[in-house]
Amino acid sequence: MLRKNRRCARLFLNGSIFLMHILLGSRSPRRAEIFTQLCIPFRQVPSEFDEEAILFNQDPKSYARELAERKAALLAIKYPEDLIVTADTVVHCDGKVYNKPRDLQEAASFLKDLSGRWHEVYTAVSARRGSIGYSEVDETRILFHPLSEEMISLYLKAFLPLDMAGAYAIQEGGGLLIARMDGCFYNVMGLSINALKVVLLKMGIDIWNFLKK
Fold first, then answer.
1. Which of 21, 105, 121, 205 is deepest in the core (most CB within 10 A)?
2. Where is pLDDT greater, at 51 or 145?
3. What is the pLDDT of residues 56-77, one digit of tens each?
């Protein structure tokens, strides 16, 4: 899959302007949506890295970082001249991570576990060109409303969140689930704008320049 955003064609690097696209290494339409909102020129190529190859090390922050960095490293082999951005989102609660559910039954068990409780969402963002790379991790804390089995069943039937960590999407009926949130909305959506800003700035790119006309 190759998806291109043609809204912008200029990339600013250290005050200079040249033509290129950032390679967004993700299948996620939500991350592509955030890039488009920021008017960042990009082409979208999914990383084929097997996320299940990395075992959870009991540190959700470093786990998310390793997944994002591994995705970028694999793409860098094929696209050594491109500036690659990858991300990975991890939902964590009481020592357990909740990745993408395998089916609706597992999704229901995830939401049942998270019902009425606080959990953390970590999104790691990695930027890499060749052998040079940086990564940043953002954290958002989420409190779910108490959820009945009927509520969980209705939510899953309405939104089918099988491609989302934790089996829910903040932008798709998330208000039905979430009682309180401490941190970045976009981090829960799958791409922290602050983390993206930090790693791109380390690569010499200021997101603010994309908004200039």
1. 121
2. 145
3. 988 999 999 999 999 999 999 9
Q: Cα–Cα distance between 78 and 47 in angstroms, integer?
A: 10
Q: What is the pLDDT of residue 8?
A: 42
Specify the 3-state DSSP secondary structure of 166: helix
- Greatest CA separation found in the chain? 56
Domain 3-208 has CATH 3.40.640.10: no
64 and 195 Cβ atoms separated by less than 8 Å: no
CB-based contact 144:119 (threshold 8 Å): yes
Of 210, 47, 201, the residue nearest 136 (C-alpha)? 201
Domain ranges of the chain: 3-208
Residue 14 DSSP one-character state: T
How far is CA 20 from each of CA 3, 17, 30, 46, 146, rounded to the nearest angstrom? 14, 10, 22, 18, 47
Known catalytic residues are 88
Q: Is the pLDDT of residue 154 over 70?
A: yes
Question: Among all chains, which residue has been given the structure tokens 């954290």?
Answer: 139
Write phi, then psi, for 206 (nearest 5 degrees): -105, 115
Q: Is pTM, for the whole model, over 0.85? A: yes
